[in-house]
Amino acid sequence: MASAMRGKTGQQQRRQFLKTALACSSAFALSGCLGSSLGSLPGDQVQPTAQPQTTGEVIGTGSVRVGLLLPLAASGGNASIGTVFKNAAALALQNFPNADVQLLVKDTGGTAEGGRSAAQSAISEGAELILGPVFAPAVSGAAAAARATGVPVIAFSTDTSVAARGVYLLSFLPESDVKRIIGYANSQQKRSYAALIPDGSYGAVVEAAFRQEVGKGAGRIATIQRYKMSGSDTSDLVAKTAALKSVTNNIDALFVPAGGGVPPLVMQTLVSQGANLGNIKILGSGQWDSAQVKNNSVLAGAWFAGPEDKGFQGFARRYQSTYGATPPRNASLVYDGVTLAAGLIRSAGPQRFQQSIMTNRDGFIGIDGLFRFKSNGLNERGLAVYQITGRGTEVISPAPRDFRTGF
To answer: Using CA atoms, how far apart are residues 23 and 300, in angstroms rounded to an integer?
Structure first.
């Protein structure tokens, strides 16, 4: 990038990159404004050479090929998320008609072998970057194929075990939620915590992060109750919630990371048990970002961490207008992935997908706000803290606009 940036130092490059992104009036302008502000770059002058013939669906007509690996024929209803993600990718290119990107759509079937085969197919057809897959097994398969050729992967799985050097997760990771909400609670003088955490891999990750962040704030953990959920059977959750009554006089924060029907049920159970909730702040995660939780009056006053929602609201309106349906919250991931690829193609020239560019410590701005990739493949996000009103939410701590301010 040094030659493309006319001799600027690495630190100056990073600052200019982020400054340019922040200057955009909308996250949707990322790819366009990054390129236009940096002037003519060496990569702009490279004439595309003859490329292999593509097979399957292609979105876009640019000269730089990017594999888009999705579960389009997966079992168990998972194909629907593949279709939604493909629609979001197409919408990204519709909003940036001059993006020099050609997306090679490949079906993973949601499996490891499917991910490996899809990645091999995309790479053999000239893909310089892989976007996706969505599910962890397919990410593992795709990563194995991509690693052998040095092609980086930006995946959408929340399973951090599949992250690695060159395999970056763009998804919303539970560690970021915990860091933000517990960090904010610490800043508001919350010192004694309890938690209700689901059994399983998600719960294990959340618990480890919870213990770390409470410790950073010199707080104490009165109890952690782990519950099992089996389909609609909430008996263990109810029992573990009831067990919290004995500590409610000794805590000032209760962390309930699971979303859906869990937070309302927890509150209803505590109230029915006569628990003293007057001095307790209920804390949640990004899984609370749903109408079911945000519009529930029993949770009014509770806090949770999540990405900025203004960008997503604009994206959702565009998606609804184009496809006649409301997109799920994580549909913005693939939109940001395509936009990021387009921005790097335009701003970084031939070095566009090198690790030093992908792990730019100043990060990038997308629909969901500030994010950056770490060298181990995980990400960090600038999240906001919301308070539930019972009729939606209000921001009580805005998302940071850069990583230097700390959060």
So the answer is: 35
Integer-rounded Cα Rg, in Å, for the chain is: 22
Count, residues in the chain: 407
User: Is 55-172+307-376 CATH 3.40.50.2300?
Assistant: yes
Residue with tokens 């805590």: 251
Evaluate whether the domain defined by 174-306+385-397 bears CATH number 3.40.50.2300: yes
- Mean pLDDT, all residues of the chain: 88
139 Cβ neighbours under 8 A, 6+ residues apart: 115, 132, 133, 153, 155, 157, 159, 162, 167
Residues 284, 203: Cα–Cα separation, whole Å: 13
**Model pLDDT, residue 77:** 65
Instruction: Judge whether 196 and 240 are in contact, CB under 8 Å.
Output: yes
Question: Which residue, 290, 288, 249, is CA-closest to 266?
Answer: 288
Crossing angle for the helix pair 10-23 and 30-38, nearest 10 degrees? 130
Tell me the pLDDT band of 51, cut-offs 50, 70 and 90.
confident
Helix boundaries (H) for 328-388: 332-348, 355-358
Structure-token pair, residue 365:
């701005």
Mean pLDDT of 290-297: 94
Global confidence as pTM: 0.84
Is the separation of the CB atoms in 368 and 163 below 8 Å? no
Q: 269, 241 in Cβ contact below 8 A?
A: yes
Give me the residues paired with residue 380 across strands.
372
The C-alpha atoms of residue 50 and residue 48 are separated, in whole angstroms, by 7
CA distances from 365 to 140, 289, 382 (A): 27, 20, 10
Fold matches, 55-172+307-376 and 174-306+385-397 = yes
Give the C-alpha separation, 241 to 121, whole Å. Answer: 50
- Is the pLDDT confidence value at 29 over 60? no
Give φ, ψ of 14 to 5 degrees.
-60, -45
Beta partners for residue 33, in sequence order:
none
Q: What is the mean pLDDT of residues 257-270?
A: 96
Looking from the CA of 205 toward its CB, the CA atoms found within 13 Å total 16
Whether residue 382 has pLDDT greater than 70:
yes
